[in-house]
Design goal:
The chain has 20 helices and 16 strands. By secondary structure, it is α/β, with parallel strands linked by helices.
């Protein structure tokens, strides 16, 4: 028997990480990465596996020295921290194996410090490596020749995680996306053929998550509806599971904009209690969308992109989105265009990112051929893309101004109030036939929302250090309560969105005031020696002045987006 440590490195402060809001929720991290419990489930039972997530606990390198194998996973946004951990482990003589999205697209990043690397999926290669390692016949590089059939994936070992520290749980139902966005590494890692678990696998995992006390779960699929025909029967079984158990879990997920074309699919998502959906909108400029091959966002069926967003919202699914600036077609005019689009869309939570060329993507290959890639590991202008329609500094400054504008309190709450107060948004999940036929269940849900609202409001007023922001939140919340008094779900989510705004507002302010804290969808632009643990306190921050440079709540947690945005 061997002892195996599997590590997820700390994330830097990021848009979706909600690091500055976590103390308001009494948590340490947004959600666990799906790879840790899955790798544990794939490990043969004769081995001992211990999971370490640096986002909820400090790594003890002396303890790590005692393991036979130390495995490290990580995304591009974690690459700097991964590098530091690998160096420390090798200095201590550890046997280090590395896998995950980052090493998959940048195989040589860690040089000869990695004893073994895994490229792509690892359902076949991880158990094979462990057998070969025991026989002292292991290879340096493992890569599956075929994509994993999802029907063979075991139930992840959620029981090995320190679940009490996470805001939400994570669930993967499918992999792959049928689209071909030029910037996206999803199709590089998972391919263009969507592969979906069987419904029995999904409900077994829901039993596991519920057993660990997880009542808010993010479905981490990069595009849940990549195969619409195949996902519908799975959603029906999830809805049946929810009804059987009294709707104990709230979901959020990611999907493509063509969701708006299928009422049956949206209804099934609502019946499964999916309340929010993240969509990669990227740009209101059709030429930029065509340039990046995001054709699903420009086809005429369903109207304009705004029409499609509004259709999904009006159905009763809240929309979050990803927006990107820096396409070849973009000029300095794009920033005002994005700001107007965001206002008109009624989307409160938008992750605005700089276009970044991830290795092995078509965008990276094209820009490399054109001589328009910054090949350094650290990027003073926030991205490795050298833009075509503006200078690098214009792109950076325009991005910062767009982020500042998006989370200026009056601008943010104008979008939020337009949807939730003036247009009287209703979550379809609480108005399906099941809840109409079981009014006591609806009353139960409303009682939970009311209690949650009171608890969260107290936390918000107690822990937010900025007096001006507290006054703003108090005024906005009570305004929403007065106008939507009979809808406790609405003002419960409204108070959660105030907590999310605090994170986004503070993160944006810090980026503008201190270039070393710059972050985009690709992670930090520059290395930092600041310990991660020092970044998460609500009470120790200096006062934030809204007048200065200033993803889901149907689920309060949002995804880390590896490839910019989902399709």
């Amino acid at each position: 028997m061997s002892r195996i440590a599997i590590i997820n490195p700390a994330f830097e402060v990021s848009y979706w990480g909600l690091e500055y809001s976590q103390p308001l929720f009494g948590k340490k991290a947004n959600m666990p990465v799906a790879s840790l419990p899955l790798l544990a489930a794939l490990t043969p039972p004769e081995h001992e596996v211990v999971l370490f997530d640096e986002n909820v606990e400090t790594l003890d390198f002396e303890e790590l020295e005692t393991f036979d194998i130390v495995a490290l996973t990580g995304m591009s946004v974690q690459r700097f921290r991964m590098d530091s951990i690998v160096s420390e482990l090798k200095d201590r003589g550890c046997f280090v194996v590395i896998g995950g999205p980052w090493v998959t697209v940048e195989e040589d990043y860690f040089g000869d410090r990695a004893d073994v690397i895994f490229i792509g999926e690892a359902e076949d290669t991880w158990p094979r490596f462990l057998k070969e390692w025991q026989d002292d016949e292991h290879q340096h590089r493992y890569e599956q020749t075929e994509k994993t059939e999802m029907a063979t994936v075991p139930t992840p070992r959620h029981d090995l995680l320190k679940n009490k520290h996470y805001l939400v749980g994570s669930l993967q139902i499918s992999r792959g996306c049928p689209f071909q966005c030029e910037f996206c590494d999803i199709i590089v890692t998972f391919g263009r053929r969507p592969r979906i678990k069987q419904a029995s696998q999904v409900t077994a995992e829901l039993d596991s998550l519920l057993g660990q006390g997880m009542h808010i779960v993010f479905i981490v699929d990069d595009n849940l509806i990549g195969n619409k025909a195949a996902i519908k029967p799975v959603l029906r079984e999830v809805a049946a599971w929810q009804q059987k158990h009294g709707y104990p879990i709230v979901f959020s997920t990611e999907a493509s904009l063509d969701l708006c074309e299928d009422d049956e699919l949206m209804e099934l998502m609502a019946e499964a209690n999916i309340q929010s959906v993240f969509i990669g909108l990227e740009s209101p400029d059709e030429e930029s969308l065509k340039e990046t091959k995001k054709y699903q966002n420009v086809r005429s069926r369903g109207g304009t992109m705004l029409d499609k967003v509004h259709r999904i919202q009006d159905f009763g699914l809240e929309v979050w989105c990803g927006l990107i600036v820096g396409f070849d077609n973009d000029t300095s005019a794009i920033f005002a265009t994005q700001q107007k689009f965001l206002k008109d869309s009624r989307i409160a939570h938008a992750m605005v990112g700089l276009l970044h060329a991830i290795p092995k993507t078509p965008l990276h290959a094209r820009l490399l051929e054109e001589g328009r890639l910054d090949l350094a590991d650290e990027h003073h202008f926030g991205t490795n893309v050298i833009p075509k329609g503006m200078t690098r500094d214009e792109l950076l400054q325009g991005y910062l101004e767009t982020m500042r504008n998006a989370y200026e309190p009056d601008v943010y709450f104008d979008r939020l109030d337009q949807l939730f107060v003036r247009d009287r948004f209703e979550f379809r999940a609480l108005n399906t036939d099941y809840f109409q036929q079981h009014p006591w269940q609806r009353r139960k849900q409303f009682a939970i929302f009311t209690a949650g609202f009171v608890a969260m409001f107290i936390r918000l007023m107690w822990k937010i250090p900025d007096a001006d922001l507290r006054r703003t939140y108090r005024r906005q919340i009570w305004g929403a309560v007065r106008k939507r008094f009979t809808s406790p779900d609405i003002y419960f989510f409204y108070v959660l969105k105030c907590a999310m705004h605090y994170h986004h507002h503070r993160m944006t302010t810090e980026m503008i005031d201190d270039p070393s804290k710059f972050v985009s969808s690709y992670g930090k632009a520059m290395r930092s020696d600041q310990p991660v643990a020092e970044k998460t306190s609500c009470q120790t921050v200096p006062s934030l002045q809204p007048a200065e440079h200033t993803g889901p709540l149907a689920s309060p947690g949002l995804p880390v987006v590896e490839a910019g945005s989902p399709s």
